[in-house]
Amino acid sequence: MDRTITVKVNGREYERSVEPRLLLSDFLRHEIGLTGTHVGCEQGVCGACTVLVDNEAVRSCLLFAVQTNGREVATVEGLGAGPQQMHLIQHGFWEAHGLQCGFCTPGILMSLVPFLEQNPDPTEKEIRDLLSGNICRCTGYQKIVEAVQLSARLIQEKSS
Amino acid sequence: MSTRQFGRPIKRNEDPRLLTGRALFTDDVQMAGMLHVAFLRSDLAHARIRSIDVKGASRRPGVAAVYTAGDLGEFWQPGPLLVPPPPVEQLEFHQRTQTPLAKDKVRHAGEAVAMVVAESRYLAEDALDDIFVDYEPLDAVTGLEAALSEGAPLVHEDLGHNVSARVTQTKGNWTQAESEADLVIRRRFLYDRGTAAALENRGIVASWDEKSQRLTIWDTTQAPIAIRNGLASMLGLSEHQVRVIAPFIGGGFGPKIMMFYPEEVLLPWAALQLGSPLKWIEDREENFYATTQERGQVHDAAIALKSDGTILGVKDLFLHDAGAYAPYGLTVPINSQCTLLGPYVVPSYHSEFSSVFTNKPIVTPYRGAGRQHGVFVMERLLDIAAKELDIDPVEIRRRNFIPPDRFPYANEIIFQDFAPLVYDSGNYEPALERALELIGYEEFIRTEQPRREAAGERVGIAVVNYIEGTGIGPYEGARVTVEASGKVSVATGVGTQGQGHYTSFAQVVAEQIGVAVSDVHVVTGDTDLFYWGAGTFASRGAVVAGNAMHAAAARVRAKILKLAGEKLEAAEEDLELIEGRVQVKGAPQTSISLGQLAAEANPMRGAVQPGTEPGLEATEYFGPERGATASGVHAIILKVDPETFLVEIEKYVVVHDCGTVINPLILDGQIQGGVAQGIGNAFYEQLHFDDNGALLNASLMDYLLPTASDVPNIESDHVETPSPLNPLGVKGAGEAGAIPVGALFAQAIDNAFRDIGLEVREIPLSPNRLFELVTEASARETA
User: What SUPFAM superfamilies does the entry give (chain B) (predicted)?
Assistant: First the structure.
């Protein structure tokens, strides 16, 4: 029954034997111990489990681990080297108080990585449209929007 | 420190861990040999259990155990009553609490009937399909009035009726008020159920260590200490053998203060039986049934007024939906009863409620905790009165405000903390005026609204007031320790669910000890690190635990000054605490670091003075005599699409008074998040139960939580009226944002449809429901 898969996660290769029905979210969290990816609904609605597969934001609760065989996955743990060396998007969220309980945050950060690559100077409307795929129950979104605006600015300042 | 720590918008200590995926949530706990739990839950809301056959499930490969109520022996007990009824004279109370697994009968859909333990969650869920329960379906009771009618199905047959409690509280004389009134308005108001929907579902990990004889539990609870005490008692262990850790928690909002959830007692019990660590993580569908909900009430209310709008009295008879069990006592309906009085002088009040058992999930506090209903009823009554008396809705409120020189203001009834409802302080008019200025009230009414209405738009404005009883007792504690590293560690018993306690508490301590906020390490929610406390609820963390922090830090400061005075041979009053050092004022070269002082306060050899306490450490407790009353004003301008009846919020203003502000960044976040939940409650979120008690929209696809496209930017300002009830002068802020939003929406939508005399008397609304209400009102208007 089990299938052997090889997945590159945050640049490191993992080979595991898994059941075909194992969700990618469960694979990441419980098979390889990357618990930064959170699971809020397992129905693809809340967006908390968003990760990148080949640099595209996907819901890891709607994919099977076997579907990522031979592909590259990026999770929040790889988005910066750690609490002392965070990514600029993480800094933006820290400065702007873009999180409260922090449960939805990893999914939002991962949704933003390709978004800000493609939209380096987004409007508030574009930011809110993107964020509408991620539910946050704590913040009311206002400071998340501010955090995204700040992140975009920080990234632009660094690249200029 | 040269700059103050208290009152500044300092970014949060906890964020780097959360932002990098390194914070520990309950489902992140992994242990060798851990087994996983799944629950079989009833699809029926009301049914007798004839038999349960678990043989098939037990035989499945990978299944370690299957339990039903019959397997629990004497451990099967109804849960404790968390909050006893308050000392009110006219009170009837019938205690019925939930059990670990349903035995003879299920009383709401989603009630657990069997528990499977297996090698993985997948296998445990597979095995649920192999359990056969033979149910005898019973008629369900879902409506509040239906539950009280003759011949209604009985949720608890032994009770003989469906009344959970009846409470009457009065002040003044309603009959007299009614007879002296120029106008009496009577209306029925409805408020229906929603769910807190924290992004993180509930979860528990329980591990028994045979060698140390200790049980460790990670629990998504807002009250770890009470969980430890209760579990120790139920399991026959010493409290010192049980450690409960509430790690990072993905949102609480009230339902995570409820205890004991069936899963919360079953996991620890089974971990002891099996000797293996166990984990259960609720899924989203379970969360819709098995986590507690709020707020079905029906109010029949009346207000008596003079022709100038002065309130003479209010009468309110209401029914409260308790759900199938009532472990949380009367907190929610008592809050409704007390909060109704608002910031107004109400000389006479007669309030009478019946709390009713229904075949629906259990009701316990969810952000606002019944206060919404009271605010909705009072604000709607005032709106209708203003219309009848042809007074501006803002003006009628202004005329009835409690004047600032009348505090403390006694309302002569009993609040949820069992103390008399006395407002400690308040100053309502400045907040109202500021809100009017920010929303542009006069300008909108005089020019913008007529202009836009002439162009065919439907736009409305609203302004509502509320008060919120916060920061209630009994008490919390804190221990503050300066370590030899010079950093400060702080521990308290409350749990934290995103409120920024690691930072706001650190600010309170840093202010006293003169270190950077980032050098204060706060631990919350680990019973091994702080033994005493009650929990995080009722907007009380900053008030009660915050003041305990303040007291403990002040004592440590005194110890620092005393010891430093000896070491530096200087008078204490000549010393100052700056950037982690104690120095002589004006002579910074004469100084000693806190780390060095801490080391010297803990000598390893030699003798100390009799009575010496080692270390730079202190533990203090704080318990207020009663809650601190926060207040605020919300104002809105909204547009209703006349075709789709979707609502667009064009402007939203909050002016809030929660006393002294510890961290304005965190406070704004609390307000904004509260308003977002209020908007959900007002216009998006409603749990739809059918007549059989089945929940028809138990998923996030069908139950609509507001998204970033639905919640506007909120413009906020603060008025600071410090509380005299605590040294920091703070009042709670956690629930405020959510409380008045239903009343605000109703007023604004009425205003947008005032030409057809629309009168919204229910929350939640939705585009569909609004279309119906407008259609009915139009038909009445043209009839």
Answer: CO dehydrogenase molybdoprotein N-domain-like, Molybdenum cofactor-binding domain
